Amino acid sequence: MTEKKYIVALDQGTTSSRAMLVDADGRVVDAVQNPFPQVYPQPGWVEHDPRDILSSQLGALTELLVAHNLGAKDIDSIGITNQRETTVVWNRETGEPVMNAIVWQCRRTAPIVEELCGDPAVARRIADTTGLVPDAYFSASKVKWLLDNVPGARADAEAGKLAFGTVDSWLVWSLTDGQVHATDVTNASRTMLYDIHEMRWDPWLLDLFGIPASMLPDVRPSSADYGVTANPGVVRGVPIRGVAGDQQAALFGQCCFEAGQAKNTYGTGCFLLMHTGREACRSTHRLVTTLAASGPGAPGPEYALEGSVFMAGALLQWLRDELGLIDDVAETSAIARSVNSTDGVYVVPAFTGLGAPYWDADARGAIYGLTRGTGRAHIVRAALESLAYQVHDLAVAMEADAGVRLSVLNVDGGASANDFLMQFQSDILRTPLRRPQNAETTALGAAFLAGLATGFWKDAEALCALRSSDDVYEPGMEDERHAKLLEGWARAVKRTMSDALSS
Q: How many CA atoms lie within 13 A of 65 on its CB side?
């Protein structure tokens, strides 16, 4: 085993920055979390001060190392994972951001996307090149807005004075004290400026959004050399060897290295990613094609399909906070099991419309099948089942796009602790589910990528061997019941669609 004891994973999220200490057995020994302020200048706008991101992240790193009395000699390397799409532009000479970062959730640039990408031929070319559906969510329009709205920014950018990066680039630049301006392939693939087939920044897209190429970071593999720490505020001389966007890091942390392997993160919504191997599958269901993180020595780029469910944990919070049906989300498993079925009740949580594969923004949530005998437990159970149905619909769309059967679903995130939900999910998908003992799969992914680059871990097989104690759920539902439940769900969704509501 290596003489270095640990890898540090920096997990820079939307509301907090975390630093985690990971040992050779893949265990998170300790973690420090620092929240930072959210900035809402006006409705629909979301910003972060890049200095807040930096201080919260470097503070967490320092606190972690001090608590365990660790220096550079004890740390093998650092891996970074980050909120994706969030856009930072800073001055190369001073290191100062030109303004707050525009966060992935921010909708201010929707008119720009509409103006530049409204032509179906343009939208098609963007989708073909980047794998993405044109949207304000991605970084391209955010960079354009910054250059057009910060006084002097465009002139400075054209003079080569400004640097653009997603949050990983900002952290790498800051940690190396301005010596490295780089990103990894997974974050590059979320900017809507990167050709995921040619593996380069796309000149046509840079021209479309009016972004000088001099602003862009160097794009490197996810497991690679990103310099060493040189910032006077942190421990110096530690190699940075892993970088990946959060969802791709979770896919890697779940050891989904082969086509057909997938992970689903049950958070506020759900993020489902399926590895599709060396093939970039063009979706016909408006899923997103994206680059997956690869370990060292990969023969070429690897790809994934990505889709999201809008309402997952948020639905359970609604049961608690708005309806008062539960006191604690943790009790929903036992409540659901107190009845044998929902007695025909279906919850369709289309609070903000329906995502893939329906794509109906005007659909609205509903509860169907209520009778006088319907009680609290039936509604709670139906809510949990709706999460599984939504993931099922997404998985079916993915399988159709990829031409690959979902062999196993790896799960993480808060709601994955719900045993009822996990068993029902396995039953409805007819696929085994694997839940790791360590649910911090995003941070683990970053650590794994760094540790493979340095030889801390030998290879992908060694990582898979660390997962021997997973909880496994096997499907066991009889065919007739399975068909009947899915038929009922499809009927409920159909009645919720906007065309049904208006007729």
A: 24
Task: Enter the pTM of the model.
Answer: 0.88
Closest residue by Cα to residue 146 from 161, 135, 157: 157
Cβ neighbours of residue 229 closer than 8 Å, sequence gap 6 or more: 72, 78, 175, 176, 235, 236, 237, 238, 240
Inter-residue contact 75 to 8 (CB < 8 Å): yes
Pairing, β 261-266 against β 218-220: unpaired
Do 271 and 398 touch, CB atoms closer than 8 A? no
> Across the strands, what pairs with 461?
none
Kindly report the length of the chain: 503
Structure tokens, 76: 């093998």
> For residue 201, what pLDDT band results from cuts at 50, 70 and 90?
very high
Close Cβ partners of 321 (under 8 Å, ≥ 6 residues apart): none
Domains of the chain, first to last: 6-246 (3.30.420.40)
Tens-digit pLDDT profile for residues 100-155: 999 988 888 989 998 999 999 999 999 999 999 888 889 999 999 999 999 999 99
Which residue in the block uniquely carries the two structure tokens 């060396």? 278
CA distance 109 to 90: 19
For the CA atoms of 127, 132, 137, 138, what is the dihedral angle to 10 degrees? -90
The DSSP line for 29-94 is EEEEEEE---B-SSTT--EE-HHHHHHHHHHHHHHHHHHTT--GGGEEEEEEEE-SS-BEEEETTT
